[in-house]
Amino acid sequence: MGIRFFTDNWLTASAGVGLLRVLEHTGYILEDFVNGNTVELSQEILQNLGKLYNEYLFKEFKPDDSWKASLREKRKKNEKTDVYTEVVYKRINDFFSNSPLTNQSKIKHVKEITILPLDDEDKAEMLVWENKGLIEDFIKDRFQEILNYPRSNKICFFCRERHAYKKNGKVKILDATNFTPLTASPDTVENFFWEGRSNMYLCPECEIFLYFSAFGFHKTPMGTYLFVYMPDLENTKRINDLLRTETGLKSFMDKTIVEASKIIEGRKAEWILRNIYIVEIEKVKDAQSNIYTLSMSQRLAKAIKENIGNYPKHKGFGDLFSIFLAYIYSGRSLYEFIYKILSGFFYRERYKKLTKRRDIQLVKMGMNFKNYLPYSLTYFIKFQEVLDMEDKERISKQINWAYREGLTLKEIYEKSKNIGKEKAKRKIEGISYRLLDAIRRRDTDAFQQNLIRAYLEVEREIPYIFVEALKDGSFNRIAYAFLIGLNGKAKEEEE
Fold this sequence. Notes:
Layout: E1 3-6, H1 10-26, E2 34-35, E3 38-41, H2 43-47, H3 49-60, H4 65-76, H5 83-92, H6 104-112, H7 121-130, H8 132-147, E4 151-155, E5 163-167, E6 170-171, H9 186-190, H10 204-210, E7 218-219, E8 225-229, H11 233-245, H12 249-263, H13 269-274, E9 277-285, E10 288-295, H14 298-307, H15 321-330, H16 334-346, H17 360-368, H18 378-387, H19 392-415, H20 421-441, H21 444-457, H22 464-469, H23 475-486, H24 491-494
Antiparallel strand pairs: 1-3, 2-3, 4-5, 5-6, 7-8, 8-9, 9-10
Helix pairs in contact: 1-3, 1-11, 3-8, 11-12, 12-14, 16-17, 16-18, 16-20, 18-19, 18-23, 19-20, 19-23, 20-21, 20-23
């Protein structure tokens, strides 16, 4: 029997995908190693993993124009860099900070003898490739060092077959060196366990296996890392290979749901869809990250599949896409999402000093709308109502109607001879503040009273259908759509 690794959670699955990619790059046939959710290697390949690891790192190293520009920047600042930093450290340190592969005391010698000449970019590139063998020897030595540690009597938490090893008199457990985003220090992991005693014992083989997880994740243009987990290793790799071909998260999500639908054909669709996880890692500090795990219900998958293609193309909304996903996956209402954008638009002075929180991007988005709110904001109202299982066609008509009513009332104010354009602008602002406050408190009476006064001001009767709509549980969608329209522009003007 060979050396077996089990991929029954997103961490081990990412290591499985990373290992399979390394084997694939070397020319191995993956079917020879995969059996369901198990990867099985021969002893010979296990001993050769250091070499394969190095080959893949050099495969991912790209000495392109941006790399050469970074060398020039270092030269201006009188900084140094070396082969190990450029090929290995930059690629995996976010995942394995202070590990045997990145610990500064261990890699110090390799760094010192592979310093790159910053005044000659072509020579620097040539030296990178010339030192490939030296880097390989270092990685192989580190893997062999792990395999040589004495075994304890504790069974490995991950493979449930082999014995964990002992280092410095202690049984090895999973810690920050093995997957840094999961924990900031070795002590933090223990806080998750009864009496502070972790049972996540680690054997040498599984520790080396986890060092392949960095190759399973995909780095996005925003600097975060993504991994999609499905309860099947072969399809997990397939989905994550698809992720690598997409330039943006939105286009990936669109294709992922369609691809997942094909994959689950003939199986229990609801069960599979509920077991798809999207893991996003957002680096905060050198050894600290936020991890967002997003799961999907069948209803959510259907909503994404049918509506994601209409996601707003208005400038700036692309930057909010990952936050939008976080809201819908976690079950948070998109009305909260919209409210934060509107707060930024109406109370921009209040939010000038912003803290560094994820949702602050929503407030900033509202602050960036200088003169009007775009119609495309109604997309989020419609998406929320679809998630709430409302009739898509009916609510779309209702939202569009409320938006047009708000836009019409604004135009009436602006064209009124008794008010004038500047005064009309101030009046609309005052009405909007009161309506937003009523929405925040979910006070339908206050909302209706302010509506009536707003219409009476220009000697118009409030449409009766408006009053009826607010009675049938449609308050949020009607109120938000009307408020967006009241501060919007005709679609032709927007375009």
